[in-house]
Amino acid sequence: MDLEESLRCLQWHMWFRWREESRRSGSMELTPNELDYLYALLGAGRPIRLGELAARMQVTPASASAMVRKLEVRGYISRSASGEDARSVLLAPTPKCQALEAEEQTIYADTASRLAAMLEPQELAELSRLLAKARGNLTTDY
């Protein structure tokens, strides 16, 4: 099996695990685009302004605003007044949104445990080293 096929198989494994978990939790209701917004918000690690979310998503503030309204109504995003500027609003993930992150961590932890169980310690260390090297060369701002 070549590298492309291995990556494809791993991606499919992760996708099916995510689908199973999201069916159980109810998060299957979200579209990929909605998930992108939520992960951008979660990735900030702090409440952010709409303009920052729009910049992270590389969309107009109007597009981001429409999506935020939709996700707020569904209970994934909350708004609060900024302490610095009374006119400014900060967006934050709700506990419902944060549960998505926990769901994803469970899936990755389970997959890592399964890999660790089938590999020798030196193989696992080498896989970790190679994946870290690849990650360092492939990632951008996310």
**By helix and strand content, what is the structural category?**
mainly alpha
The sequence of SSEs as H and E is HHEHHEEHH
In terms of DSSP E residues, the strand content is: 5-15%
Low-confidence stretches: none
Task: Tell me the CATH architecture.
Answer: Orthogonal Bundle
Work out the count of structural domains.
1
Task: Look at the structure and name the CATH superfamily.
Answer: Winged helix-like DNA-binding domain superfamily/Winged helix DNA-binding domain
Q: Quick check: average pLDDT?
A: 89
Distance between the termini: 29 Å
Say what the CATH topology is: Arc Repressor Mutant, subunit A
Please, how many helices? 6
Task: Identify the overall geometry.
Answer: elongated
Helix content: 55-70%
- Measured on Cα atoms, how large is the radius of gyration? 18 Å
Strand order of the largest sheet: 1-3-2
CATH hierarchy class name: Mainly Alpha
Largest beta sheet, briefly? 3 strands, antiparallel
Number of strand elements: 3
Task: Briefly summarize what is shown.
With 142 residues, the protein is mainly α. It has helices at residues 3-25, 32-44, 50-57, 61-73, 95-118, 121-138; strands at residues 48-49, 77-81, 89-93.
Describe the overall structure.
This protein is mainly alpha-helical. The chain has a single domain, classed as Arc Repressor Mutant, subunit A (Orthogonal Bundle), CATH 1.10.10.10. It has helices at residues 3-25, 32-44, 50-57, 61-73, 95-118, 121-138; strands at residues 48-49, 77-81, 89-93. The protein has a 3-stranded antiparallel beta sheet with strand order 1-3-2. The radius of gyration is 18 Å and the shape is elongated.
